Amino acid sequence: MILVATTVVGLTAVTIIGCASGDTPSQVVEKYYQATQDNNCEAVPDLVVSGRPKVLDNYVNSCKRYAGKLVSYSIKGERFEYDGRLAGVDTEVTLKDDNGVETTKSVGQTLAETDDGWKLTKLENRD
Asked: Is the distance from CB of 91 to CB of 28 less than 8 angstroms?
């Protein structure tokens, strides 16, 4: 966290920069898939809601399992629930198996708005 102090007409204001990512739910999902494509699973914990180790393990393990197999992904839609504090992002992913055969499937992601921005909370395979 970076603190910047500014003096304005005798008053001191402190601005906090860098806490929240400012990303939309879809952008967080894109970062997750990009980390998977790049085999950069170390980046995944920053995208997942804190305090839920099982959720974190699921996302990191999924990243490791599909690294090198994720051919492409696309965001198909985004929706908000519970006064805008939860978001659902519908995606379509194309995976390549060990024989080189590509399969496309729908995958849903659920995100929660936290003090640190939008974070992944649930991965839902729909096939």
From this structure: no
pTM for this prediction: 0.79
Q: Are 47 and 110 in contact (CB under 8 A)?
A: no
> What pLDDT digit, counting tens, does each position of 81-117 carry?
988 899 999 999 999 999 999 999 999 999 999 999 9
- pLDDT tens-place string over residues 32-56: 999 999 999 999 999 999 989 999 9
CATH numbers and ranges of domains, the chain: 21-125 (3.10.450.50)
Of the candidates 94, 85, 110, 105, the residue with the CA atom closest to the CA atom of residue 29: 110
| Helix, strand and coil percent figures for the chain, each rounded to 5 | 25, 45, 25
